[in-house]
Structures are given as structure tokens and as C-alpha cells.
Amino acid sequence: MNDLKRLFTYLGPYRRDIILACLLVLIETCFELIIPAMMADLIDTGVASRDVGYMLLKGGEMAFAAVLALFSGLAYARFAARAAYGWGARIREAEYSKLQSYAFSDIDAFETSSLVTRMTSDITVMQNAINNGLRPVVRAPVMCLLGIFFSFSMNAQLALVFIILTPLLGFGLFVIVRRVAPMYSVLQRTVDGLNNVVEENLRAIRTVKAFVRGEREKYKFGNVNASLRDTGTKTNSTAVLNLPFFQAVMYACVLMLMFFGGSMILQGTLMVGELTGFLSYVMQVLNSMMMLSNVFLLLTRSLASAERISEVLDRESALREKDNPVTTVKDASVEFRNVSFKYSPDASENVIDGISLYIKDGETIGILGGTGSGKSTLVQLIDRLYDVSEGEVLVGGVDVRDYSLVTLRDAVGMVLQKNLLFSGTVRENLLWGNKDASEDELWRALDIAGASGFLRSFPKGLDTDLGQGGVNVSGGQKQRLCIARTLLKHPRILIFDDSTSAVDTATEKHIREALAQLRGVTKIFIAQRISTVMSADRIIILDDGRLSAAGTHDELMRTSDIYREIYSSQMKGGTL
After folding, report:
1. Domain spanning 334-571: which CATH class is it, in words?
2. Average pLDDT over residues 10-35
3. What's the confidence (pLDDT) of residue 572?
4. Using CB atoms within 10 A as the burial measure, which of 100, 174, 259, 308 is most buried?
């Protein structure tokens, strides 16, 4: 319940809409409640005395009350919808903003599909709770209390009949809610599973088709889809039990009232109009209790979704800025002081273990090592995509944890191993690096990245649409566009994480030579190809998360068995 209360704090400006919606429900309910009293009066006075004028007067009053109730209900719907969807939008914005503050380790704690579900399906559940639950949660108690009051005012003896049945209704609702509550959490987790299969299949659709595994993927989807179907069926078939149960009690109540009321009419202690009005109030009371039961079910499902949303909002990011962070980077030197790192505090072994390394301002460094040796992880510690488990990483002589994240990441440009372009044009993607970049700056960055040649051959040039994820360009073209985008940041430190693996050797050589002309920039190249790093000022060899060797190409050829083995296997003893 605390999770739900916490989410209500995001109502903000929509509190006014909630209050107005509640007031309109009260007005609507009051108009509806006076109609049975008018009807009883119409029958007992107008019909009994055959006074047509009185009947028309009362009928007009009833119609006027009904019209006012209608307009109150329509106005309520407008304010409730605005509050529900405005509230949902604010929660979604809060979730998305929270995700942007997460470290990689925080994001790793959730599956992508689960985060999507929490920002879509779970928030839709919360919106439905307002849209479908606000009216009955206000209307039902008012109708119930006033209905009971008017019923006792008309005939206290008959009113005791449905008062006796109330505990039975409450017990039935308790049993149903207690059983269905845990099912809603399972249902949302099953939606996570379905989204995960769909997202994974769409991301890897080319691999699926290349290996002709479409039938296997259909089978996987069929299983998770059937699981969602079965879970949804079981959950909702349990939830809707309240309807037949409440209706059974309602009609039993009506039958008893008709029996006892009919007897009282025959005895002359009750009038027909009174019984008609009384039955209207009884139906309103019982319907209000049925509405309340539906509200409890909505609330139960909302609590499950609120808990999942709160898990995202309440998670403290592993990356925390100091109260007065450093906002300037003095120089582009990088130092690792006895750095160790593991992805989880519970992990038995470090991914990076005891690395100490100093990179001078403006130096060019190459990093080689086998798969899983920790190359990518090491450089991701520089701009705090992860934080070290032990030791310190310093940029410009200052611990990276002392910088503001904006300052640090503006100073570091990283072309990640997994290149990603966004939907839109080439120009829109490049402007991610610098939104104020001129046309000349864009083409200069493209020249350095070796991308201007193929881009000039496109009919629309910079305005070429890339499609989702850059599907309209090749892997090598995508890598070069990502390099150009990073260069537009004008960073002090440039990190290339195997970011030329998909380009040919001639293009790679052009990129290396163009990058060598950049002055005052520290460049770090992670590569699988030894030709990429041979001309670096120093080459670092990582082996199983440890610093195995460091030096120039000539020095490593003399001192490092690992480097000589890599050189021999790739260069076959030749020279570049």
C-alpha cells in the first residue's frame, strides 16, 4: 500500500482534476438518490389519486434530476481521464528519468523486457485504476450510506433483511481478493517473459533466418504465449467470481424483500409506492457493494503493478555524485591505481584484478588481449559506466568519482563495441555529438572517420534516412558514422572499443592516420587486429583481467610471448 501512496505523489497538477472528478461523482450520486423518493411519491400520491398534473410535475422533476446526473457523469469522465493519463505520463517520465541515471550495473539488474512492461503495461494498470475505480470508490460509499439511511427512513423492518446479508458479501469478497492477489504479480511477470521472447527474436531476426531457426522461435513464442493465456485465464476467472456471488446474494435479498414486503402490503402496513422506492434503494445499496468489490480487485492488481514500478523508482543508482563535484577536467591523463572490478559484489572472482597504469596526456594507447580478458570493462571505468570495486581511476589527476557525470562524460568520447544508430537521418545522428555543429564540422568529422566518401554517393547525403538502428547502412558504414558522431564531441579522451573491426584495412589505415593528426587528445584503441595498435605510443596486453605486459611494438616483440604469438598469427612474420 505504501508503494501506491508513493505513486500518488506524482499526481502533481492533476490533483485538481481528481478533486473535481470526485465532487462531480458526489453530485451525480445525490441526483440519482433522490429519484427513487420522487418515484415513491409519484406512485403513492399521484397514481393513487389519479392526479395527472402531479404525476407530470414529479415526472418532470425526475427527468430533470436524471439530466443533471447525466451531465455530471460526462463532466466526471473528462476530468477522470485527464487525471488518469496525466498521472500515468508523469510516472512514466519519472521511470524513464530514473533509468537515465542508472549505471550499467543497475540496468543489468532488470531484463529489458521487464523494464518495457513496467513502463507500459504496469502503468496502464494504474491508469485503469483511476479511470475505472475513481467513480465507484466515491460513488459506492455515498450510495451505500445514503441508501441505507433512506431505506431505514422508509421501513426499518425491511432494511434489516439486507443488513443481515452484508457480512456474507464481505466474507466472499475477502476470500476472492486473498486468492487473486498473488496471481496478478505472476501475470505481470508472464507479460515480461512474452516481451522478452519478442524483443530477443526481433533483435536477432537475421541470425534466426540465417540458421533457419524460425520454427524453434515459433515454438518458444507459442510456449510463453500459452503460459500468458493460461495465467490470464486463471487469474481473471478467479477475479470475476465476485460477480455471480454478489448477484446470487442480491437476488436472494430481492426475493426475501418481495416476500416480506408483499406480506406487509396485504396487512396494510406498507404501501406499494414505498415498496417500489425501497427496492430501488436496496438495489442501489447492493450495486454499490458490487462496485466496491470491483474496486478492491482493481486495487489488488494496482498494488502488484505499483510494487514493480516502485522497484525501478526506489533503486539507488550505483553512481552517485558528490555534493560539490569537480566541473573542469585539467588535462587528459588517465591513471589506474591498483584497480579491481567485478560486476556483482557476490561474484567469486574479479573481472579486472589489481591493474596499475598511467596514460599521459595526449598519449596513444593500444590494448590487446583475448576474449574475456577485461579490455572493454577496463575502459568503461574511465567515464564511470561502472564504478571500480577497489582502487581508483583518475582523469586529469582527479578521481572520476569526484567529477560531475556531465563534466566527465563530456570529456570522454567512447565508440562502443556495439555500434548503435538511432532512427532518423544521418544528420540527426551526428548532431548527437554536437547539436550546434555546422555543416563544415559535420563533413570534417566524416572525413576523419572515412565516412564522407560513401555518404556523398547517397542521393540525400546527410539527410539520408538510416531506418531503425541504422539498418540502411552496412556494419562498416555504421562504425564510421559512430566514430564521426563521437569526434563531434571534441572530447579530451577518445576510446575506440574495437570500433573498426567491420572496415577494410585500407579504410582503417586512413582512420588511424587521420586520428593521429588530432593534438591534445588521449587516444585509447581496443582491438583484435594487431595492425590497429602497432603504431601506438604504448601497447597494453591484458590476460585474464591482469596487466601482462606494456611497451612499444619493438619492446613487446622482445619481451612478451603473448604479443609475439598474436603478431605471428596475424602478420605471419610480415610487416605492415
Report:
1. alpha beta
2. 85
3. 62
4. 308
